[in-house]
Amino acid sequence: MSERELTYRAAINEALQLEMRRDESVFIMGEDIAGAPGRDDPEMVDAWGGVMKVTEGLVREFGPNRVRDTPITESAFVGAGVGAAATGMRPVVELMFIGFMGVTLDQIFNQAAKMRYMFGGKAKIPLVIRTTIGAGFRAAAQHSDATYSTFVHFPGLKVVAPSTPHDAKGLLIAAIRDDDPVIFCENKVLYDTSGPVPEGDYTIPLNSAGHPREGSDVTIVAISRMVNLSLDAAERLSAEGIEADVIDLRCLSPWDENAILESIEKTGRLVVVDEDTPRCSVASDVAALAATRAIGFLDAAVQIITPPHTPVPFSPPLEDYYVPDVDSIIAAVKATL
Amino acid sequence: MELDRDRLLWLYERMRLIRAFENRLHDDFAAGVIPGFCHLYAGEEAVAVGVCAHLGDDDFITSTHRGHGHCIAKGVPVDEMMAEIRGKVTGCCKGKGGSMHIADVDRGMLGANGIVGGGPPLACGAGLMASIRGTRQATACFFGDGGSNQGTTAESLNLASVWKLPVVFVCENNRYAETTSTDYSIGGPDIAGRGIAFGMPGIVVDGQDVFAVYEAAGEAFRRARDGEGPTLLECQTYRYFGHFEGDEKKYRTRDEEGHFRERDCLEGFRKTVVAGELLSAAELDGIDEASEAAVVKAVEFAEQSPLPEPAECLDDVYVSY
Interface pTM (ipTM) of the complex? Predict the structure, then answer.
């Protein structure tokens, strides 16, 4: 019997549905996550189901009290998520694009991230902020970032970025059940991708890496959609007799250092592929880990493939130039050999 | 307004304890035994106490950088507060927060806040919790005239209004945001009107008169708990000390300070209840003495408490990591 397949979008929707059924304290809120709030016309219910349709159908099952459309007021509703979490709820807040963190950053990094510490461990903030990352939609500079590194930098936050439907579901359920604030980064280019997703609930540890391909010649550490590109690159490299060990760094904070280090120990070569901009990034963090903890195993300089240090451009040839591609990954691998 | 004897005693005890606590900190800061910054609440006691008189243990408050008065009014023990302000491990935040982040979540005090305007969204969240669960819990959101100009405050007033959240917004207009007077910083005739603009009652209250605060807050919390939505109270008050300890207050006149000290909330309370034969001067004197004694005991507790071990720096970032 073949395994059930779901899209990345449907896997996230199912995780929300299962957790809302399981736990009355879980609720979701954000801009247009159902759509047409306050309208009595039944034809208008669930008018959007989220701008990416990730939350479609949930308002019909759980109602507008727990599937709560917000005004466009990111500071207030993200902060309300923090306050509700501090007082016993498990909010899942949708921040439509990661670029919008610019208007609500105080509530994330001064409030959510620091409250437990400032209060001597006497508060817990079981909050999930779901947001979208990723270029490729010609959506230009404010709707295409992959700036998860910003959140990795803040103590008190956990950050995850799944690359597969399977991981999206398991990591989101784990994030909702976790007692710390989690930034959950969904790559919008992946929403229509499909893969096997088990029925029912399951969790994936929030400090674990995936290991989608084994190989002995070179380690490729990649994040989110860059994992998919890295696997494509690995296929082509394999045809040339080069076997890549691909690590899916799905958990960014905390992260699975040992998975990276063990792979480097095996291969002696490291390529990091990251869609975030290069400075002070997860990519540079991985390179630093290799330099400080695995230098004796490295046979070549670490290669880092990222976009240039620019905002995401609009025009198709510009955006295509910006995002790392399979060819650039292959070239980086060959540079280590 | 009917206030029974126990309630009158409670109002005076809390206000007097805040005053004693803050006066002692003023002296201790000058003596150099308080690390960091201290923003003192002396002068504004009627606001915190008149508001928190309506709150139970399972209600919530959000606070500001000037949060000691809110803590005491909400029932945070002064021993734990004084230890926290001294950076001791017995403090209510184990020495991790200090004066500016003093908190007691178990008692519904969601933290003093070093970010002006940081609290109102959090208050909406506590209100949202009660609203979703259908409880009668209410939340008081304290902020200042400075905080009234932050976008988070405007957003929170609107969100609380459209969702009819059980939140009472309490603006403590003490006329100065650091050195900047409200004459300079507030567009429009007052702050209360901003509540009206967002569809809620916006009421100017004499923040030096605990009876006036108590009465206005009583109606505001009734509305909140009955599902009628938020209220904005603009309580006009004055801080006796500077923005922080060490501030020379060169931005205001001694005449102005004298004018407000003549309208002191404790003296006003005393005159009213003694003249009305509600409480005796001797009873009030007894509370004065007890307050001073409680603060002396808090200082002793703090002084005798150990400092944290340095490696405790590493604890309490996450529940698990």
Answer: 0.96
Q: In the structure, what pLDDT confidence band is assigned to residue A2 with cuts at 50, 70 and 90? A: low
> Quick one: fold of A210-336?
Rossmann fold (3.40.50)
The CB density around residue B309, as the number of other CB atoms within 10 Å, is 9
Residue B269: per-residue pLDDT: 98
Its pTM stands at 0.97
- Given a contact cutoff of 8 angstroms between Cβ atoms, the answer to whether A323 and A291 are in contact is no
**Mean pLDDT for the stretch of residues B226-248:** 96
In the predicted structure, residue A289 carries a pLDDT above the cut 60:
yes
What CATH class is the domain A3-198?
Answer: alpha beta
- A143, A153, A166, A309: the catalytic one is A143
CB contact under 8 A, B122 and A78: no
- Parse chain A into domains and list their residue ranges: 3-198, 210-336
Nearest CA in chain A to B155: A76
CB pairs under 8 A between A and B: 151
Please give, rounded to a whole number of angstroms, the shortest distance from the CA of B92 to a CA of chain A.
7
A143 catalytic? Reply is yes
CA of A269 vs chain B CAs: smallest distance (Å): 28
Domains and CATH numbers, chain B: 5-301 (3.40.50.970)
**How far, in Å, CA of A213 to CA of A218, rounded?**
11
B52 to A277, B59, B118, B133: CA distances (angstroms): 48, 9, 20, 22
Confirm if B66 and B16 have CB atoms less than 8 A apart: no
Locate the DSSP E strands across A79-232: 90-95, 128-133, 158-160, 182-187, 194-196, 210-213, 218-222
Domains A3-198 and A210-336 share a fold: yes
CB A213 within 8 A of CB A246: yes
Nearest to A84 among B97, B128, B158 (CB): B128
The confidence band for A293, taking pLDDT boundaries of 50, 70 and 90, is very high
- Judge contact between A94 and A49, C-beta under 8 A: no
Residue A107 with chain B: CB contacts under 8 Å: 118, 121-122, 152
